[in-house]
Amino acid sequence: MPQPLAVTLGEPAGIGPDIALLSWLRRSELELPPFYLIADVRFLDARARALGYDIPITVTEPRAASAAFAKSLPVVDLDIAVTAAAGRPDESSAGAAIASIRRAVSDVLAGDAAALVTNPVAKAVLYRSGFAEPGHTEYLATLAQERTGHTYRPVMMLWSPELAVVPVTIHLPLKDVPQQLTTELLVETGRIVAHDLTSRFGISRPRLAIAGLNPHAGEEGAMGDEDIRIVAPAVRQLTAEGIAARGPLPADTLFHAAARATYDVALCMYHDQALIPIKTLAFDTAVNVTLGLPFVRTSPDHGTAFDIAGTGRADPSSFIAALRLAARLTQETSGARTLAAG
User: Fold this and answer.
1) Which of 4, 56, 120, 341 lies at a C-alpha separation of 20 to 30 Å from 236?
2) What is the 3-state secondary structure (H, E, C) of 183-207?
3) How far apart are CA 86 and CA 210, in angstroms?
4) 136 and 17 inside one domain
């Protein structure tokens, strides 16, 4: 029997509980891998009933979750009372979300879960509680370091069968990107991406397309010299290390079908340069994958959607894709494949 996936509660007032519950209801139809949810059982049962879902819940430990999955939703009880209503986070929200993440990381590092699938959190809610990490992903790296004694540099990749992208800088004002972008950052990111595409995705020699920062990749310095000073040296260094990297490439011609066929992942210089194309091509099915961690972590590529939480209108497609990709990445792989193999 396969090891289950550990699924975090996420922000309880958001749509995370909704999409997890709906996905379990469709488990047979969609042939989903077994998973368990780390949550307050009473809260989860109340949300299911409010949505009109008839879902039997089994309180279990991770190792028994796969056996229970066919007939009931396995839940590892947080033993934390969640009082947040749908769409309205409260003082219980942050504590429950954080405790769920901590338990999931502990389970996967202990070998009790195959991988980690995280539901969306609300950063503002976490920050109000005193949460000190910049974000969800950085917290996972901190927890991994606490438990293993090693330092990790996580890299966010957005994956879909149509396209995979990595934003080298993420949540920065556009005006700050040129100052934060360095050759060293690009090289380190490229190394992590190439390593994990080989070790996790089974691609023998990943092809990295590296976008330019400026229009036309700087037009040989006519539109800014960052691509000459920062990006081009990083590409040369990665190539010298045996990584199949090319660039800087003009971003405006990097994402059409013929161009996408020439690479496995595009490294983009800032948030929107990466996320606009993938959300245009795969808005409902893109998955957030964290590279550079000692375990597989995926997440749906959307937020908490407070406005539709508890209404039954949440689309579980990205969560389902995250489950499937997490299961795929934990399976044995052999031989080379392209990232778009699905």
Assistant:
1) 341
2) HHHHHHHHHHHHHHHHHCCCCCCCE
3) 41
4) yes
Distance CA 247, CA 212 (A): 7
Choose one of 281, 311, 334: the last residue of a domain.
281
Looking at residue 194, which CATH number applies to its domain?
Answer: 3.40.718.10
- Name the residue range of residue 230's domain: 162-281
Q: Can you tell me the distance from the alpha carbon of 121 to that of 11, in angstroms, rounded to the nearest whole number?
A: 5
CA angle 114, 53, 94 (to 5 degrees): 55
The closest alpha carbon to 143, from 102, 187, 178, belongs to 102
- Max distance between CA atoms of the chain, in angstroms, equals 64
Residues 222-257 pLDDT 10s: 888 999 999 999 999 999 999 999 999 999 999 999
Three-state DSSP at 41 gives helix
Q: Hey, is 43 helix, strand or coil?
A: helix
How far apart are alpha carbons 207 and 200 in whole angstroms? 15
Question: What is the C-alpha separation between 47 and 67, in angstroms, rounded?
Answer: 24
For the segment 264-274, what is each residue's pLDDT rounded down to a tens digit? 999 999 999 99
CA–CA separation, 292 and 154 (whole Å): 5
pTM: 0.91
Q: State how beta strands 287-291 and 155-159 pair.
A: antiparallel
- Gap between the Cα atoms of 9 and 43, Å rounded: 11
Judge whether 342 and 159 are in contact, CB under 8 Å.
no
Alpha-carbon distance of 159 to 290, in angstroms, equals 10
Q: Is the dihedral of CA 186, 146, 102, 200 positive or negative?
A: positive
DSSP state for residue 342 in the 8-state scheme = -
DSSP state of 16: H
